[in-house]
Amino acid sequence: MDIINIHGGFLLFYIFLIILPFTSSDYASEALLKLRGSFTFAALLDSWETGTEPCKIWAGVVCENGVVSGLRLGHMGLSGKIDVDSLVSLPGLRSISFTSNSFSGPIPDFRQMRALRGLYLSGNQFSGEIPADYFTTMLGLRKVWLSGNTFTGSIPYSLGLLSHLIELRVENNQFSGTIPPFQQTDLTSFNVSNNQLVGEIPWSLSKFDPTSFAGNPGLCGDNLGKNCNPFMDSSNQPVENGIYVNATSKKTALWVLVASTLLLLLTIAGICVLRRRQEEEDIDVLEKGNLDDLNNKKKSSLGSRKGFGSGHRAGSSRRGSGDLVMLNDEKGEFGMGDLMKAAAEVLGSGALGSSYKASMANGLTVVVKRIKEVNKMGRGQFDVAMRDLGRLQHKNVLTPLAYHYRKDEKLLVYEYQPNGSLLFLLHGDRGIAHAKLNWPVRLKIVKGISRGLEFIHTELSTLKLPHGDVKSSNVFLTTDYEPLLTEYGFCSFINSAQAAQELTAYKSPEAILRYEVSPKCDVYSLGVIILEILTGKFPSQYLSNGNGGVDLVQWAKSAVSEGRAVDLLDPNVANNVNVTGVMQQLVHIAVACTENDPEKRLDIREVVRRIEEVDVPDEGICHHGMKTLNVLPSLSDGFGDPSMPPHQSSTFECYDTHDLYKKDVSVGDQSCRISFAFDAP
Q1: Which of 132, 238, 446, 614 gives 20 to 30 Å between its CA and that of 405?
Q2: What is the predicted pLDDT for the residue at 137?
Q3: Is the overall model pTM greater than 0.70, yes or no?
C-alpha cells in the first residue's frame, strides 16, 4: 500500500509537470494577445495567433525553458499604447525592447515590472519629464536605453541607484539640468550627448570619452577639456561682478547694446539733475549759515555708499540676485566680484553639488558650496532659513559667512579649514596629519562633534532633522583638531526625493522601513561616525547602494554581544590596556546610538552626558607632576636614528597632560609623530 501511495505521488507530480507548460503557454498567449490589441498598427505581428505557441513561432518572443523571458519588438512600425498590465502578468519577463517604433506620449509606467533587467525604448517619440524616482522600484535593471526620443526635464536621479547598471543611453533627447552622480563601478557604456545639460561632469564619469557628452554646450570638465567656472549660474553662464551674462545671437546682442547705451545716457542725465539739486540745497544751507546741517548731510551720504559693490548684510533692502548676502562679517566683507577674481580650485563633488576653494585678494580663503538640488523655496523663505543658520555661534559649528540666492541653485560660503575633513584624515591621508589622530585627539573630536550636534538640535529644534547629514565628510578640523560641523539644516531647502537618497539621516532603520525621520536619525548617524573614528574603517552607511565599506553598525552589535568589542578598535591607537578600556566605553555608547528602535535609542543630551564621562586614562601619564617620557623612534616615520639600538629610548622632560594633547613633542627639529611610552614614577 505504501508503494502504491509513493507511486501515486510521483504520478501526480509528473502529471503536474506535463500540464504546467501548457497552462503557462496559454496564459502567456492571452497576455501577449492583449498587448498586441493595444497597438494601433501591428501588421508584423501576424504570427501572434490564438491556438499557437508563443515560444515556437511568435515573432519577437524570447523564451527560456518554455517561459517568456524577453520581447524584441524593435523596427516593427508599432504605434499606439503599450499595455503594461499585460506585461506585468508575465512573471518571467526580464527584457523588453520597443526600439525604433512610433510610440509617443509620456513614458509608460513600467515601474510595476520590478524584475526587469533590460529596458530598451530608443528611437521612438516619447516625450515629457520622467519622474525623478521612476527607477527606484526596478533596482535589477542592467541596461536602459532611452535615446532618440524627446524627453525633457532632468535625468532621473534614480538611475544612479541602479547598482547593477552597465549601460545607459539617453542621448538625443532634451534633458536639461545637471548630470546626477553615477557611482556604479560596472558602468561600461554611458552616453548623454546632444541634450541641454549644464554644469560639471561628475568625477565618477571621467572614464568616458568626450563623445559621451558632446552636444551639450553647457557642460564642462576634464572630459571635454573645458574648465568649469565655479561661480556660474544654473544655465552655466559666467557671473561677472554679480551680473549674469547669457549667450545671445548677434542680433540680440546689438539690441542689448543699443538699449544699454540709452540707459546709460538716461542715468548720466539723472545724475546731473540730482547733483544740481544737491548743489542748490547746499547753497541754501550755506546761505542760512547752518554748517552743521551740511556736514551731517554729507556724512549721511557717505555712510550710505560705504561698502557699495560688496556683499550686503542679511535683512538689507538690497536683495538683487547678483550679489552675496553677508551673514557674518568677522572675516571682512566681500562680494561676488571678489569671488570672481579669486583663484579657485575644485575641492570635490558630492550628491548635493560641488565645493570650491577660493583665495581672495584680501587674504581670506573660503569654501564655496554650490547646491543645485533645491526645492521651490521662495527668496523670502530662504533668507529666513539662512539667517537662522547664520546666527549659530558655537566652537564646534562652522557658521556660513555668506550666501547667494538663485531660483535653481544656491551658493553657501564658509571659512576654509586647512586641515580638511575628518573623512580625509581618517581614510585618505597617511601623513603627519593622520599620525596625529591618536586616542586623545580622537576623543576630543568625538566630544566636539557631540557637543556641536547637541547645540544644533537645541537651536534648530523646529526642524524635523536639525542636522540631517552627520558624517565624517561634513566634519572639518581646525589647526588644533577641534571639529566643526557643517552642512546642517539642509533638509529644509533641498528636494525631498534628493534628501531621502543622499542625507545620512535617511539611512536610519526607521527612515528605510517606514519613511519616518526625526532628530533621533541624527543620533543614529552620530553613532556611525563614532564607530568610524574608533575603528578607522569606512562605513557602508555612507554609500547609496550599500556596496563597499564596512557595515559598522552590525559589526559593532555582533562584537559587543559576543564580548569582543576590543576587536573593533583601530590598532593604530589601541596600543595599551588603559586606552582600550576607555575606547570600549565609546563603543557601547555608539551601539546605544544605533538601536533599530528610535524609542530605545539615546537622545542627544544623554549621548553628550555619557561621552563627557569618558576620559583619557591617568595611569602612567604625567598629570600635574613630572615623570619620565620615553619616546620610541620609528624608522618608518623617518625620524629615528639608525645608530640607536632597537630598544633604546630618548628621555625628555614630561609635559602636563593637557599640554601633551595640544602640542607636538619634538625630536630635534622634527615633528614627533611616533609612539610614546610612559615610565612609572
Answers
A1: 132
A2: 84
A3: no
